Amino acid sequence: MKLMHLKSGTDVRGVAVATEKYPEIQLTDEVVREISASFIDFLCEKKNKNPEDLLVSVGHDSRISADRIRTAVIDILVSMGVNVLNCSYCSTPAMFMTTVTRKCDGAIQITASHHPFDRNGLKFFTRDGGLSGDELKSILKNAEEEKPRELNKKGSITDVDYISEYSAMLRDMIKEEVGAKDYDYPLKEFKIAVDAGNGVGGFYATEVLALLGADVSASQFLEPDGMFPNHIPNPENKVAMEFIRKATVENHCDLGVIFDTDVDRASCVDSHGNEINRNSIVALASVIALENNKGGTVVTDSVTSDGLREFIEDNLGGKHIRFKRGYKNVIDEAIRRTELGENVPLAIETSGHAAFKENYYLDDGAYLITKIIIKAAILRKEMKHIGDCIADLRKPIEEKELRFNIIAEDFRPIGEALIEKIKILAENDSDMVLAPDNYEGVRVSFKDQKRNGWFLLRLSVHDPVMPFNTESDSVGGCVEICKTFYEIVKDVKDIDFTPLKDFIKIQ
Fold it and tell me: What is residue 119's three-state secondary structure?
């Protein structure tokens, strides 16, 4: 059985529901059982325990294939003798927390994040956090061997409403940190709209905010629906952000909140309808993280703006490190620096993955929003609003993202060769400035008034794609930067630059 194609970074993902476009199910019951059993092998070795001595939690989001896959996971675990904590409907960050509060040896979350309804996947945790890419690779390799197992044992199954336990922790956190006169209802003067996108995030409105006195009547798409009929549950999606922006403004809310499907990401909208996402959500999280960590380091992904760096370093007195894209890369770099003695209170991607050191470096959308709401409640006492925190964040006048497909089976050498070509060219061109601290691809800046910005070209980790991001502080600057880039790449073979040509209107 070949399984390595199901590896997506640190997650297992694949087709779980047959459609006309994708008629072959990849995450069959057999595949799910083999991978889950291999995870138990991994835990036994890591913990030096027998399966009968393990406690493993299992949960899922709202996807239509969740029940089938959960049944397959639990069946194989129980037959191996594992004791299972069945958390059912639960967020991904909450599943990690079972390893902390319930002392689970491991956790399995059934999710495919924001991907289409026909996909699903498995995400694995230990008390040390999510598995690394190498650990998952080892688990999949072991599963491919389909080794014979003794499956006549009988582990226990304990049903638990863990999302309610998790919600109670967030409520207590808000009560304690806001310290309102009415301790039990610190949000009674707030009107907050929550958009769960029919994923698992509806609990935040009903079990956190409403029980603290907040008016959540403007909330939408709280009901679980694995077909995601209203919009893609993704804070980076423009349509999704417009839905929550509209709900916030039309209902005169103090704040709008949007989660992705499994609540490991989040963004928000202020009372004026201004979207707080991408660079803005990084800036706001940095304000909160650096308040009690003066001079601390914030690790972000590579596509953050120059204005954000200025904000973190000049306005907040922090240190900004741009690292490789991918939330696990960003988190791992923060952990690495922490272990070396550096104060790194926050690791965050522009996608909305935010991991606070105080919260086990767990990328948790609900925790991020909780910190923002606490800040908003404290600011209200001073007659201020959450948007005031990032009023000085300099935003680029223009920004653009393009993606170039590599038309070759062996795509990696082609992408790497182009990146190296640009590096050499930039080193010898007085108009181009190479970013001195870039950890991914090649980032080039232009100081002239016409272009007045930068571009970043990188190579996707798994796919034959080269994402290209550019920003400019001049009107028309992104087009001019792209024209410069086109002159560099116009003779390059095996890469489709059609999106670039379309943007700068070259036939």
Answer: strand
